[in-house]
Structure formats: C-alpha cells, structure tokens
Amino acid sequence: MNKSKKILIAAALVIGLLLILPFLIPMQTYLHEAEKIASEKLGAPVTINSAHLFLLPSPRVAASDIVVGKNQELKVDSLVLVPTISTLFSATKILDLKISKPVIKKAALDFISALKKSDNGEAATVNIRHIKIDDLQLVWPDTKYPAMNVEATLTGANKLESAIVETLDGKLKADVTPNGDEQLIVVSANKWTLPVGLPLLIDNAKLEMHLKDNRLNIPNIDIALYGGKLTGDVVLSWDKSWRTSGNLSVNNLSVQQPSSMVSKSVYLSGNLFGKGNFSATAKEAGQLSDNLQTNFQFKVNNGVLHGLDLVKVASLLLKQNQGGGETQFDEFSGVLTSAGKQYYLHNLKISSGLLAATGQIKVKPNKTLDGAVEVNVKSGMGLAAIPLEVSGTVSNPVVLPSKAALAGALAGTAILGPGVGTNLGIKAGGAVDKLKGLFGNKK
Q: Does residue 418 have a pLDDT over 80?
C-alpha cells in the first residue's frame, strides 16, 4: 500500500470518528446542567428542547426550541455556538453566536436586568466575538414592531463595537460604528410607518446619533413626511434615572391624513407650521411618555375644519349635537402644552372671512374633552359672540352653545323679542360664562 493511500485511509477514519463521536456524547446530561445554570443567571425557568454537538465543518453546539420564563417571555427557534478553535483549551473561550427567529416580549427585559445585576465585575471566561440574529421579533403591548435582522461585533470585554440592524422589508436601517470614544449611529428610513403612537408614514429620514456612556445625543433630526419637514434635536440620558429633552420644528406639513387618524368625525386639513420643546424624567424608559412636558406653538394656514360647522352651531343656537359640515379658515393657531398624559390647547384662534373664534380646550388622560370656544359670526346683523362648550372625546368631539348662552338667549327673546333681545341675552350669558371661568368651574 503506497503512502498516499495510507493518508487517505487515515483521513477517512478521522472524519468518520468526528462524525460518529458527537452521537456517543450524552448531551442530555449537559442539557439539564445548561438549563439549571441559565435559570439561575436569569432568575426565570429555562427549557431547551434539544441540543447537538457537531465537530464538522468546525466544532459547534446547536440548541433548538429554547424558552425562557413562565409565560414564554423569550423564545428562540435555534441557537448555534461556534467556539474559536484556538481558544478551545484556553481559560477564556471566544465564541460566535447565530440566533434564529427569536421572539422577545417586553417582560423579558426584566431577565436582562437581572443578568446585568448578577455580573460581579470579574473577567469574563467567555467572550462573544460576533452575533448574527435572523428574523428578530419584538412583542410589545399595543405596538407592532417589524421583524429585523441584526449583526453585531463585540470587543474582548463583551461590549458592542459595531452593528447593523435592518428590517426584513429594508425600510429601516441602523448602522453602529466606533467614532473615537463614542459610537456613531446612523438611522435611515424610507416609506416606513411608525410602530409607536400614530401610524405616521415617514417618506424619508436620516438621523445621526452619538452614543457615549449613558448619553445619546441626536443633534440633527431631518424627517420628510406628508409633504413637509420635521427637524430638531434630542438628548437622552440614563444613569440613576432616565431623562430626555429636545426641540422640534414643523414646516409645511399637510395635516389632513394625520389628524383624521386621531378623529374620523372632526379633523383638519391645511398646512401646519410650528415649533416647540419637550422634556421628561422617569425612573424607567417606558415611563418617559407618561411624564412628558411640552410647549408647542402652531398655526395651520388655508385649511378646513371638517365635520363641524361653527357658523351653523353659533348662529342657530343648536341644543343638540349636529355633526357634519365644515368650517373654512385662513389661519388656525394656538399653543399646545402637556403635563404627563393631560394636554392643553391654549390661545386658540380661528379667523376667516365669515367668523373669528377664540378658545381653549383640555384633553384629559382618558381622552375626554373639556373646553370653551367663543365664536363671533361676521354678518350684517352684528350677531353677538356666541360662547360654545366643547365636550365628548378626542375621537368624537361635541360642540354646543353653553347653557348660559341658551338661557340668556331665551330670556332676552321673551323680554325684548327676537333680534335685539336675543343678542342682549346671549351677551349676558357669555358674561356669566366668563365669570365662571374667572373663579373656576368646580364641576
């Protein structure tokens, strides 16, 4: 037998041994031990349906159907650990991870926090060099996030060095790269719908973010949507608490489609211009929106208030809600402020060739409305300003003449007759409403 044949036979025996050897190792024993260690680290039950050891084409362990938590807060279809061969017998192992179809619920964040707290600061015995995640799905209450692919490179201390996050449809992408002593994050979006809050369609966006320690700075926001532009800056920091603040400006944004998402019955059309600022502080990131403080000045030019005819409501003194119609205006302006989940619309002004209106509206946390609007219809008869009450909900607002105005109009008409008597009665009713507003309405 010549030398080359001996080499081939030896190689075949080695390959065969490498193929057979994994089946001789009792993986079930190691599986139970892995479940136990993982459960202790995460503070939640961990089950692994199966695991296999492969020696070819390189050593690796593949586990499938991994479930974390009593309510399946985290599920992974498959997890593959690929150690670097040169570190197999070293004190510190270097691994690559491949994760397929993970499903993460919001409650799983508690497990991650517990894992961080259990870190005693000692040198890691396992360093993860590269992570590849396919078809990641985040499951948050009342929010539908798109499926994503993630690829990340870590440093020797298991800290993020660079990453690429991209939705499966390619509409959103984020690149993370080292930039001196910080991380530069570039986010781009194209025809992407926001998964949080109103489902606004972003035509095009590019944001450059700077991440350093516990601070994320977004110095330039540039977003194109609904024919207009949203620009501004945001700062987010976290240490003992979470803090955020920023400034936003809106230029020439068509409001018809966004406002009709809030209310199908009464909504605006026209072009929005505005600017303002916001800030919030909370113990947890998810609580920032509940503590938001905003101040935003706005105006809508050459628009229409759809679903509500203010001239009709004011001039006919309706006693019950009469939906439909519209109010055309040259300018609608005001100031939007918020304190947590409660919003205020101050200094509201609507002007057109037919009417002039002023008012203020409170939007309560349960989305109910409480406000007052004074409408002065411009006509040859010189009709008095009509005080209107705003009630109902954000999705179904109700605008009616105030009870004092109706009572005054009725009394004035009975005493002095229609026309002058009605107008004087309305003025008296309006004065009563203003006195109530001056001393506060205790109802």
A: no
Query: 227-231, 321-325, 404-408 — which is least confidently predicted?
Result: 404-408
What would the pLDDT profile of 305-364 be if each residue is shown by its tens digit? 999 888 777 666 555 555 668 889 999 999 999 998 899 999 999 998 778 899 999 999
C-alpha to C-alpha distance for 423 and 235, rounded to whole angstroms? 54
CB contact set of 394 (below 8 Å; sequence gap of 6+): 262, 263, 363, 367, 368, 369
Phi-psi region of 156 (alpha: psi -120 to 50; beta: other; left: phi over 0): alpha
Helices within 282-347 (DSSP H only): 310-316
CA atoms of 440 and 443, how far apart (whole Å): 9
Exposure of 398 by Cβ count < 10 A (0-12 exposed, 13-18 middle, 19+ buried)?
A: middle
Residue 24: pLDDT over 90: no
CA distance 252 to 255: 9
H or E element: which one contains 412? helix 403-416
Q: Token pair for residue 168?
A: 């499966």
Run of H or E residues at 438: helix 420-439
Decide if 76 contacts 102 (C-beta within 8 A). yes
* 167, two tokens: 């939705």
The encoded tokens of residue 327 equal 């109010």
